[in-house]
């Protein structure tokens, strides 16, 4: 009983911290929306803001009204046509719901629900109030991490031996078609020999200094510690062109247990092309943008960093990516990349690997692929 009481006291303390943190932003609650957002919806937002300081009224119910209304707007039409104001509205709904959860109840399950709500706001909404939802996650995640470290048996952690290591057939790479590998070229030679003529290349040894190698080497256990309770989008199915392909939301722990550790061999799950490092800044601190990316167009803020994480057997159908820098992160297994020149006729057969091809093997390390044409 003393252990349960201590957990409840810790959770309540974090709940009060969240509400206190939010109250510090009193002057930053303008809630200014254009006429696109109905006045009745803005009135509900203002009631939530008032209830934040008074602690009275149907706070959580009002937050749920905001979420339901904005969710409908987010799922009407195509995503690129969704106005940013609706995304901001959804984020405010998540914000008020988290504050209500932390004030009304602070059980372990409720703290996890609050983290999930923050993640939904980060995934579907827009940044508000200096990205306050990210700050909430840090506060709540500290509590979750402490509980797990006290409850879990170290001997029961995930090990590499328990991971799926499927034997996937790969093509034989002809030396004449293989993508060249070079070790830490100068910026000048990289630009002259590969970037300007738009030739793909694998750069080796350029990220050995990353904290992901030095300070705390990445592993499944490390991912679970840093991001295990975070909710992420997961593709279910071998490839997104299949009829049975779908998407779902899972925590990183659920994703690892279901698809990475040998559990359900009947289906494949893939965390693909997700901006995980924006969602979990702690992971972004473990990597650095390669200096070669400065040779591309635009500023550093324009660089998109995505993550791919999944078991063997996942496939990305041919697609066009006109990029000048791409980082591919893998821990274990093999991946085959086929580069097709942009001017290849649409009716040509891509399965004969008539362009640059490479088979890359990883084992608990990160490789960087700088590509200036297509992948």
UniProtKB/TrEMBL annotation:
GO terms for molecular function: histone H3K36 demethylase activity; metal ion binding. Keywords: Chromatin regulator, Dioxygenase, Iron, Metal-binding, Nucleus, Oxidoreductase, Transcription, Transcription regulation. GO terms for cellular component: nucleus. Residues 189-316 form the Cupin-like domain. This is Lysine (K)-specific demethylase 8. The keyword Transcription regulation applies. It comes from Oncorhynchus tshawytscha (Chinook salmon). It is found in: Nucleus. It comes from the Eukaryota. Its cofactor is Fe(2+). The keyword S-adenosyl-L-methionine does not apply. Its main location: nucleus. Residues 63-148 form the DM8 domain. Pfam families: ARM_KDM8_N, Cupin_8.
